[in-house]
Design goal:
The structure holds two protein chains of two kinds.
Chain A lengths: L8 E5 L4 E6 L7 E8 L6 E6 L4 E2 L4 E4 L5 E6 L8 E9 L12 E6 L1
Parallel strand pairs in A: 1-9
Antiparallel strand pairs in A: 2-7, 3-4, 3-8, 5-6, 6-7, 8-9
Chain B lengths: L3 E4 L2 E4 L5 E7 L6 E7 L6 E7 L5 E2 L8 E7 L2 E6 L8 E8 L8 E2 L3 E5 L1
Parallel strand pairs in B: 2-11
Antiparallel strand pairs in B: 1-3, 3-8, 4-5, 4-9, 5-6, 7-8, 9-10, 9-11
The chains are: A mainly beta, B mainly beta.
Chain lengths: 111, 116
């Protein structure tokens, strides 16, 4: 699976949009981009995933560049409860392939 | 939605004893389950992958005789930490995937193991 690079930490003001970048320059054509987050001392939570088109769900939007070498997770209106470590992971699709976590981005939403 | 129940949420045990952690998929059949370990302020590290009815596949550096994984049914996987030592103290997390269905993984809430 391709590796990803994320900033170690980011701050965001409550109510503003949080934009979390991820670089995955060695991504393969059959690899998806997944985003998970982990709130302190809990199991990771699935947020969103995509292959090449932009995706949106009730939690977030995922913007993938045309060359697929990078992506951005957007939380449109961050709240204090969105403070967590956000992981960007690329891997081949399917529910039986392992998920390898990198270091992630600690997003701190400030009041 | 898919729910994975993990128990216990925390456990304290004495050095040399064994501890069993359970991971159950409540509303779907988990063809594959994964076990992770997480030390403080670090990311999740994959320990092993288990498929129902077959032996687990361990990641490099993980002792299979120390971390026994059983996936006897499509809804239950267990991780047993044998002869636990203080350095095994960690946060253990399971996750489950369903073949042909859910495209992502559902994670358990984790187990905080403290070996004294």
């Amino acid at each position: 699976d391709a590796k990803t690079t994320q900033p170690t930490s980011m701050d965001c003001a409550e109510g503003r949009a949080a934009n979390l970048p991820c670089n995955h320059s060695t991504i393969s054509g059959n690899e998806y981009v997944y985003w998970y987050r982990q709130i302190h001392s809990q199991g990771p939570q699935y947020i969103i995933h995509g292959l090449k088109n932009n995706e949106t769900n009730e939690m977030a939007s995922l913007i993938i560049t045309e060359d697929r070498k990078s992506s951005t997770l957007i939380l449109p209106h961050a709240t204090l409860r969105d403070t967590a470590v956000y992981y960007c992971i690329v891997r081949v699709g399917g529910a039986t392939n392992k998920l390898i976590f990198g270091t992630g981005t600690l997003l701190a939403v400030q009041p | 939605g898919a729910v994975v129940s993990q128990h216990p949420s925390w456990v304290i045990c004495k050095s040399g004893t064994s501890v069993k952690i359970e991971c159950r998929s409540l509303d779907f059949q988990a063809t594959t389950m994964f076990w992770y370990r997480q030390f403080p302020k670090q990311s999740l590290m994959l320990m092993a992958t288990s498929n129902e009815g077959s032996k687990a596949t361990y990641e490099q550096g993980v002792e299979k005789d120390k971390f026994l994984i059983n996936h006897a049914s499509l809804t239950l996987s267990t991780l047993t930490v044998t002869s636990a030592h203080p350095e095994d103290s960690s946060f253990y997390i399971c996750s489950a995937g369903a073949k042909g269905g859910y495209y992502g993984y559902t994670f358990g809430s984790g187990t905080r193991l403290t070996v004294v």
